[in-house]
Design a protein that fits this description.
single chain; about 290 residues; alpha+beta; Glycinamide Ribonucleotide Synthetase, Chain A, domain 4; nine-stranded antiparallel sheet; 5 helices; 13 strands
Amino acid sequence: GKGVLICHTLEEARAGVKQIMEEKKFGSAGDQMVIEEFMTGREISMLSFVDGKTIRLMSSAQDHKRAQDGDQGPNTGGMGNFSPSPFYTKEVDRFCKEKIYQKTVDAMRQEGREFKGVIFFGLMLTEEGPKVLEFNARFGDPEAQVVLPRLKTDLVDVMEACMDGTLADLPVTFEEDACVCVVLASKGYPVSYETGKVIHGLDAFCDKEDVYCFHAGTKRNEKNEVASSGGRVLGITAKGKTLQEARAKAYEATEWVTFENKYMRTDIGSAIDSSESPAFREDESGM
């Protein structure tokens, strides 16, 4: 995510350390560093609800971290997402259920750190099998934008079950539709960008079904107009019977919104076109 440097050579690694710790590219956050194994593969996210003992998986999703088309440019908080991921196969699902998901919840409870809430599993599908990149105790952004619109069970009921420890008694189901989110950002994000740009066209979403506009870096200005206030400004999300349909609807909806220095990637979800899977859908419950 944002603040992560991918280094392919020793020279790049040394330059990265200098940028972070000496030049303070990320401010005081660079006072400490974490150096991890470089893994190659396809990155997948899995969100889940947890009540301390029981874990209910939401859906797989696939993020686009780099700022520019073709996965070029610096890492960001996420420039778009799609769900479900066709690369999260039955084999991957079986492995993760056996080796990762429930074992994580059990280990936390056994260590006296019983967890209730949302766990985000960041996975890398390597040639050696799925590996865990990160855990987050929150929804992902923009993962939540492509997962929660497909949730059929009342979210309040799910959260209450997490708190009460009764998640095992509550069926958590999702629509079979696909969902795609395209982030509208301020040009120059995540490095240097201008804010305060008035946003036009938001009313176009008021009477639309299966198309959503999620606010991120926005605020009201002194004229009570909605204006940009951050790097990632809006998340334009659409549902469809297939990922291709959802993507087409999402990109069409991005044209409804205008603001100065608006920027977006034009290839969100392009990986689904090269997938060898004949149907870009997951057919197991909760996926």
